[in-house]
Amino acid sequence: MRENNERIGEDQLIASLKCGMKIDHAPKDEHKRGKDKMPYEKVTRRDFLKSAVAGAAGLAICGPKAIAAEKPKAGAKSIVAIARAANVLDENLQVNKQSAAAILRQAVAAAVETKTSQDAWKKLIKPTDIVGIVTSKAVNPTHMELADIIKEDLMALGVPEANIRLPQRDVEAVKECTALIALPGLKAHWLTGLGTVLKLYIMYSGKPSEYHNENSVKLGEIWNLDFIKGKTKMVIIDALRPLCDKGPQPDPRYMWNYSGIIASTDPVAAEAVGLKIIQAKRDEIKGEPWPLSPPPLCVEAADKQYGLGTCNFDRIRIVKSGPTEGMLV
To answer: The whole model's pTM is what?
Structure first.
């Protein structure tokens, strides 16, 4: 175990610390850890790494204190809207479609700063577009009632039903699309740390296994493939019932009714906010910091390396509506 604890790559450690994330050296059955955890090995390669590790636990994920030398750039902040409703899931965990439609539309309008969701869609989608609604299919699948609501709203905008597709895992179908709406479920993932926004397009790479574990840092490059780049007009995260531990099979102990929708035109900002919620819930369950493993390095890389958006909370404005208890952000 000592050898496993010491064999952690310097690059991975530094990348995680920049995002304010503590790397877990514990065994794989980390959710069973108690107070008598094995202590971390002392890092001796450089004083910098030693001091960075000592301060890492107090940093927020890509937050204002995460990278002291970085100052917010001039310009507007990315808006991430969170809308929640207590009655969106019934006692049998079935979706109340009317309530779901209300919070989805509220989040979309807030994310684009328009009076209504229809006004927002008019800014983002043309009636002549071929629109792909990309959903999560595994681990914690998207509630398909949300896709139906979006489809209804796009048809009301004038997009023909035949031009609204569900192209998940279908490369040729997504190539035909002129606009994409990302609709993932909010979840942790055992191979990438987080399995929400940035991982959503992994099947379009044609080589998903090459983006697992430490290679998940490269997930952002999929968003820059020529048949995907620039097509994603809106990210809508299904946070009705998130999964805060990784699977591969969903464990009901780590699922809860958040009863919310997260929306943004900035995929990285949406991912950063979703990650903050996941991490806060994990810490709440454990009663102490319980970092994701593997660490979701893809979030900072999507910002710093691939230029897909921002994960710096100095440059993110969160607009909240609905019940505040359990908001976690």
So the answer is: 0.79
